[in-house]
Design brief:
Elements: H1 22-41, H2 44-72, H3 80-83, H4 123-126, H5 134-156, E1 163-165, E2 168-170, H6 205-224, E3 230-232, E4 237-239, H7 246-250, H8 252-257, H9 261-273, E5 282-284, H10 285-303, H11 306-319, E6 333-335, E7 341-342, E8 349-351, H12 352-355, H13 359-369, H14 372-387, E9 399-401, E10 407-408, E11 412-413, H15 420-432, H16 438-455, E12 456-458, E13 465-467, E14 469-471, E15 474-476, E16 478-480, H17 486-495, H18 500-518, E17 528-531, E18 542-543, H19 556-568, H20 571-588, H21 638-641, E19 659-662, E20 669-672, E21 685-686
Antiparallel strand pairs: 1-2, 3-4, 5-6, 6-7, 8-9, 9-10, 11-14, 12-13, 14-15, 16-17, 17-18, 19-20, 20-21
Helix pairs in contact: 10-11, 10-13, 11-13, 13-14, 15-16, 17-18, 17-19, 18-19, 19-20
Biased composition (Basic and acidic residues): 129-153
Family: Belongs to the glycosyl hydrolase 47 family.
Keywords: Calcium, Disulfide bond, Endoplasmic reticulum, Glycosidase, Hydrolase, Membrane, Metal-binding, Signal-anchor, Transmembrane, Transmembrane helix
Amino acid sequence: MYPPAPPAPHRDFISVTLSLGQGDDGSKAQRRRSCWRKWKQLSRLQRNVILFILAFLMLCGLLSYISVADQWKAPGGRSAREQRARPANPPILPAPQKAAADPGDGPVRPPQRPQRHARRGPPNLQIRAPDRDAQGRRQDGSRRREGAVDEAHQQQNPPRTVVSWRGAVIEPEQGTELPSRRAEAPSRPSSWGPRILKHVAAPNERQKAVIDAFRHAWAGYRKFAWGHDELKPVSRSFSEWFGLGLTLIDSLDTLWILGLKKEFGEARRWVSRRLQFQKDVDVNLFESTIRILGGLLSAYHLSGDPLFLQRAEDFGNRLMPAFQTPSKIPYSDVNIGTGVAHPPWWTSDSTVAEVTSIQLEFRELSRLTGVRKFQEAAEEVTRRVHALSGKKDGLVPMFINTHSGLFTHMGVFTLGARADSYYEYLLKQWIQGGKRDAWLLEDYLEAVAGIQRHLLRRSEPSKLAFVGELAHGRFSAKMDHLVCFLPGTLALGAHHGLPAAHMDLARELMDTCYQMNRQMETGLSPEIVHFNLHAQEGQKDVQVKPADRHNLLRPETVESLFYLHRLTGERKYQDWGWEILQSFNTYTRVSCAALPPGVPPPAQSRGASPLGRVPAVHTRTDQVPPGPSARPGQLCAPWGGHGAPAPQDAARPRCPPHRRSLGPGPAAWCVRQWVPGSSGDRHRLWRPRSPLVTRGNHK
């Protein structure tokens, strides 16, 4: 036998086998198999949810890229800073400045002239040193001249970014930009001076008539109601609404535009010395914004006087408590002395037109002062209305609750009172903001489409286009004079790149608004008209109810005529405005009338606050007080006895025994017997039923 083999020696180590390359590939494959195995282990619902989320994220990213690229990518691939289009009209107004002291009535310093270059030619030719070689100088000079011509052409015709929006060609512009800090506001001039062009063409006969009419109305206000809200022309007194000189402030821009420097200086001194906002009085947010705040801002832009901007900022601060509501929808009234805001005593609602028609003024106040709160508060209102339900194809109801922030009185849609200027301010905010707020444009275009779909009809027999009302699904052929803002708004939108069909509709509606004046005996539109939808023999397109046969000297028609005349260049719109001015002069202007005992005033003793909003289109004049030189029992014809003569064959209308007639000819009014002191300056007018001569027969 052999002896057993000796045991193997003990080795104190381990063996490790390394695989180069194969192990990594195997682990990757294993991980792929592991992920796939985990995916297969998920339920079908889980897999579908994950796939849906991924697809949704990809779609959102794609849409965001397309939207950004479509709006801001310039044709030449320039940077975002260079892609901004230049403003259509470069800013030439003075930068806002807060003066430490009131400029007073000291001497006015003429505006400084811009520095002129010592050498002629574009500036880029003046800073280049001459070349050594004459031939090189000629070649470089030729190239520089070509470059200068190209540069000048680009400056005159800057490239504009074109955005497509529902078939409309829209060109973003440099608009109102809110400063990030008050310190960034531009420096303000230390003095102000007249900025009327030196070489102004002499006014023609029509322009002289406009200026004379305004002077006549202003003289009555200055003599009998200076510094008060409104003139009562018949009683030669005044009435107060807020006690803030509404007529004076609202007429500052008109005084400047008409070149009435003396009258403007007197009004400015009143604003500087007498206007006080620290008083315990409730003001309507909407009315005070468009008249006082808007009037002060307009006066500042035209004159450059920092006094108006100071007063505008002070007044804007006093209006801010109205925005402190649970819904951010402002109250209708605010006390500018105590800072307490509240809704009307009869309801907690505000009208949609009032809360959405203050944005232009507050946004501009923020731009000029650098204070963000004005624009932020006003824009928040528009954004909340934008997000509300209850609209009908862009049309909004008339009321909104300040506590809940929701529409009330649903189902009634109109472009008349309580809703009209909402649509106007949508477009103008979009333009004011440089056409960058697409949601404003979307709301405006949707509203115009809704108007065409639900409210636009044609009358019989003349097929006049008009905008009616919709109440709980039933159409009413009722159109307020307020709706005549729409032709001008549509024309303004078409001018800024919206569809040309808007201009076509503007022309049709403008003709309708003109006919609302022309078909009346006085040539003045009533407050409300009703159109005939069914052809009937002997009937006109327009009918007026007795309660609506009054004219409040509203500016909507002449404002739209101004837009149409400026944007189309057609003289007929100016001629129509001239006819309306003549009618106002004939039937509302009283130059010298002393009312005898027992005879009532011939017209409402109330003058409209804005004495002339659109003087360039021969706008209206206000009623003026009777002069003191008339004898008792004498009644003077309009324009001091130069009224329109009545036809010889027109019989004088006869009034009932208990009423008296005022004025000669067929335009006479029959009035009730008037007891002095019983009704103040209020009265009731009665139209005689005898045959009347239409306006077209006795121009």
